[in-house]
């Protein structure tokens, strides 16, 4: 989001726009007869009617008249770092943080990752401006939820503006008003230039191309499923944790730059009779080789979502974060329009359902793909959330916009993702490049608000990462492939 980290992104969003209410100077009194001077008019936000997207906009600058000691300055709020040490803080109230988009944009959502956002509530208002001097109320009397360290999203009336100002008035613990990271979502007023794929030197990861993936990556708490057929049951071959150190085959191997490659062909074995698609994918195994612990059930091999009740037994943890840095090298190019170019590269899987499946989708002929996730209601249907790419107004249907997304991710472009569960929320953040790169997308699902049904003592969960093909209609030799450069899974 910061300009220094997004020169190409700035080319997408820093466009000269039209519309918006400007301010005018106070006119001089008219001679004879002399009326009272005309007051300076308040700028009136312009509402857009043709803004289809809802992208994370580039913020070119942040300013504040108040800053905390120890370098807790306004620029920290747009540095793509949600850590507490990288926050903006104000020791006095009211406190204002002004975000500059560089040009007129249509503002649809404001995102704020609050300091101590899972422990306290912050009271604030939102304003917008065309000139950075005269501001108009966008929303007043707002208060944070107090249940997340990730971005809270505040929907606003679609408004044309260059500047967005957050004005803090109180915190529930009477501490300093502070924001870890701020974001604005919307779209430019004129056609945006596509974001070019960002070059990345993968040698910085220090991976050895001459060894199996298990020698570059710690895989003791993962098992691998591939499209190879296990002759004992006819389903997908599983290689258990502990056996992966030197394992490699046509579906799981080391790239020329040392990355860990997952390849999944359309033809091949599936993991069960109920599964429709093939995969080359890791399944989290927190038992870490202790095969006396069952892979299934509420036990030390699996973990609880943050809002589940205490089951009264020891588990592998509560809540968690899955982080991956990867490049998607290929997606399927044959098959039906519904299936083509669609794959999953990260999941939270429950006993039978999937609280989240994180998708990449790229259509043939497009330069870039987009990212979205499905949240499966327990024993129910999926609802869908776009993270990077065209806005999807129908949550009950899988995104199917075939427009080449201007802010999307190209094949072979290195990017990073974070899937975080804390409390009832699952958040997804997408970054360009490595795990400290520019944030280009965010969305979340609140399982309590959706009445998702996972808040029960007999539910259990595990992460999955790799390639899960979502196409069973194309040519059997067609395939999806991704190369991972970092992978980590942590739990409380």
Structure description:
The chain has 492 residues and is an all-beta fold. It is built from two helices and 24 strands. The protein has helices spanning 7-13, 213-216, and strands at residues 55-56, 61-63, 88-90, 95-114, 122-129, 135-143, 151-171, 177-188, 222-229, 236-239, 252-254, 260-265, 279-284, 320-330, 342-349, 356-361, 368-376, 382-388, 409-410, 415-422, 425-432, 439-446, 462-469, 479-490. Strands 9, 10, 13, 15, 16, 17, 18, 19 and 23 form a nine-stranded antiparallel β-sheet that branches. Strands 1, 2, 3, 4, 5, 6, 7 and 8 form an eight-stranded antiparallel β-sheet that branches. The radius of gyration is 24 Å and the shape is globular. The protein starts with 6 loop residues before the first helix and ends with a strand.
| DSSP strand count | 24
Taking the alpha carbons of the first and last residues, their distance comes to 29 Å
Profile the largest sheet. 9 strands, antiparallel
In percent, how helical is the residue content?
A: under 10%
What is the molecular shape? Answer: globular
Q: At CATH's second level, what is the architecture of the largest domain?
A: Sandwich
Overall number of structural domains: 2
Structural class: mainly beta
Number of helical regions: 2
Kindly provide the radius of gyration, computed on alpha-carbon positions and rounded to a whole number of angstroms.
24 Å
**Percent strand:** 35-45%
Low-pLDDT windows of residues: 2-49
Which CATH C-level class of the largest domain is it?
Mainly Beta
Q: What name does CATH use for the topology of the largest domain? A: Jelly Rolls
Overall mean pLDDT score? 90
């Amino acid at each position: 989001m910061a300009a220094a980290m997004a020169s190409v992104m700035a080319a997408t969003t820093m466009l000269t726009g039209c519309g918006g209410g400007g301010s005018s100077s106070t006119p001089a009194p008219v001679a004879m007869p002399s009326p009272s001077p005309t007051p300076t008019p308040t700028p009136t936000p312009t509402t857009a009617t043709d803004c289809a997207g809802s992208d994370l906009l580039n913020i070119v600058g942040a300013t504040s008249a108040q800053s905390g000691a120890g370098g807790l300055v306004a620029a920290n709020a747009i540095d793509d770092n949600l850590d507490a040490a990288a926050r903006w803080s104000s020791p006095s109230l009211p406190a204002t943080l002004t975000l500059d988009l560089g040009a007129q944009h249509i503002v649809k959502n404001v995102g704020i990752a609050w300091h101590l956002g899972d422990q306290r509530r912050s009271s604030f208002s939102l304003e917008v401006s065309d000139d950075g001097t005269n501001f108009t109320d966008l929303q007043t009397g707002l208060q944070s939820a107090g249940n997340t360290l990730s971005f809270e999203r505040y929907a606003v009336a679609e408004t044309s503006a260059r500047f967005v100002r957050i004005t803090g008035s109180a915190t529930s613990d009477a501490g300093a008003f502070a924001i870890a990271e701020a974001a604005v979502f919307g779209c430019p007023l004129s056609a945006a230039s596509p974001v070019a794929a960002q070059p990345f030197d993968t040698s910085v990861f220090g991976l050895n191309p001459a060894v199996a993936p298990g020698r570059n990556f710690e895989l003791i708490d993962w098992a691998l499923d591939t499209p190879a057929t296990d002759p004992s049951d006819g389903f997908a071959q599983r290689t258990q944790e502990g056996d992966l150190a030197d394992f490699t085959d046509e579906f799981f191997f080391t790239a020329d730059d040392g990355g860990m490659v997952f390849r999944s062909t359309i033809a091949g074995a599936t993991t069960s009779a109920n599964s429709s698609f093939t995969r080359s994918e890791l399944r989290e195994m927190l038992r870490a080789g202790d095969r006396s612990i069952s892979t299934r059930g509420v036990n030390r091999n699996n973990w609880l979502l943050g809002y589940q009740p205490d089951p009264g037994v020891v588990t592998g943890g509560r809540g968690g974060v899955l982080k991956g840095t990867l490049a998607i090298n290929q997606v399927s190019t044959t098959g039906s329009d519904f299936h083509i170019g669609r794959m999953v590269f990260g999941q939270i899987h429950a006993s039978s359902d999937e609280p989240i499946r994180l998708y990449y989708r790229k259509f043939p002929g497009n330069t870039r793909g987009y990212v979205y996730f499905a949240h499966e209601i327990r024993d129910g249907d999926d609802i869908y959330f776009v993270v990077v790419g065209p806005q999807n107004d129908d949550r009950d249907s899988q995104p199917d916009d075939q427009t080449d997304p201007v802010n999307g991710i190209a094949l072979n472009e290195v990017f990073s993702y974070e899937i975080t569960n804390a409390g009832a929320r699952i958040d997804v953040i997408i970054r360009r490049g490595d795990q400290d790169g520019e944030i280009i997308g965010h969305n979340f699902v609140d399982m309590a608000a959706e009445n998702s049904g996972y808040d029960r003592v007999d539910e259990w969960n595990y992460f999955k990462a790799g390639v899960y093909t979502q196409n069973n209609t194309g040519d059997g030799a067609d395939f999806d492939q991704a190369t991972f450069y970092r992978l980590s899974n942590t739990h409380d």
